Amino acid sequence: MVEEKDKQYIEDEDEMQIDWLGMLKKAWEGRMFILKCCIIGVIVGLIAAFSIPKEYSTSVNLASESGASGTGGLSSLAAMAGINISSGRSSEALTPDLYPNIVSSTPFTLELFNTQVTSLDGKLKTNLYDYLHENVKVAWWNYIIAAPKMALGLIRSLWNKDNTELMESLNNGQKGYISLTEDQRKMAEALNKRVGISVDKKTNYTTISVKMQDPLIAATVADTVTRFLQKYITDYRTDKAKKDLQFSQEIYNGAKHDYELKQAAYAAFADANQNLFTQRSRTELERLQNDRNLAMNVYTQSAQQLQLAQAKVQEETPVLTVVQPAVVPLQGSPSKLKVLIIFTFLFFAFAVAWEAIGKEYFWKYWNLLKETLKN
């Protein structure tokens, strides 16, 4: 009884083993079919390789300051004037984690649309919006896939023509909101897909990557995004300090003007009354001198406040250093040779699998299905 079980187990195990030799034999017998599939794969690969537009990628690496900058000498200067500026400082609200949200925001994207770009061969000179709208190429099969959606969008555009014109007029005079046309929305989405930004939270190391179909345009957009981001962060961080500086400048100008008037009045009265020693003239001269001294004190304090405000603007200016600037890429992707190899291999693998395994089971189950349908 035990021997029969062992024998049955061995037979089952033999059946479970893959007959590699038999599969190779079947594949060799179908070598002509495999060769034909490889030829088809080469043809399809060539069509795909020359249909897919090349994309060129470049990146910019930025090193952000960690945390809020220290006050350093500014605190010492303020302490001399009896002012404590360190207590008013708080942690930085605009952290590197928010940089991707800034770059993908609608106002930032709309500002990028006006960037002037030039192709590497110099034949194309336009703005970024027109380049994305009119000069970006796609593979021919994308038009077939997008045909139903394009037809639906055309019908919707006919119905929403008045709304589009209304949105364009609103964009010219709006202040608190943004209204986009359908084309603007599509171009904004296309640009956001081509511009990426990543942040290393441990080191605050920021990488801006841009992908375009022209190498020079890719480098231009990457450099523009970097400059816009630096400007946005600087304006955000220094906005209050600049307002304080403007206010201090106005006070300083007024104090200086008042001091010059009081000083001129004192000098004029002193020159006109050099030979008079009456009590009245002495009293008036003393009053003018006190007014001048008071104006001088206000003028001196306002000058100190102005210096502190100027130093604070510099202190609040963030450090966003470009470690690796945008470089015009030399090679694009995908490589035509790689596309050709991939398609040829896929067709080869399909043909081998069909001849070795698939064909036998396909006809087996196909005949079984026909018999079932007959019965």
Task: Describe how the helices and strands are arranged.
Blueprint: H1 2-16, H2 20-29, H3 31-51, E1 56-64, H4 73-80, H5 99-103, H6 106-113, E2 116-118, E3 125-127, H7 128-135, H8 140-159, H9 161-173, H10 182-194, E4 195-200, E5 205-212, H11 215-272, H12 279-316, E6 320-324, H13 336-374
Antiparallel strand pairs: 1-5, 1-6, 2-3, 4-5
Helix pairs in contact: 2-13, 3-13, 11-12
Describe the protein's architecture and organization.
The protein is built from 13 helices and 6 strands. A hairpin with a 6-residue loop joins β2 and β3. The model is unreliable at 9-16, 67-74, 80-91 and 162-170 (pLDDT under 50). It folds into 2 domains: 23-52 and 334-358; 53-333, no CATH class. The chain has a 4-stranded antiparallel sheet. It starts with a helix and ends with a helix. It has 375 residues and is of the alpha+beta class. α2 (20-29) crosses α13, α3 (31-51) crosses α13 and α11 runs antiparallel to α12 (279-316).
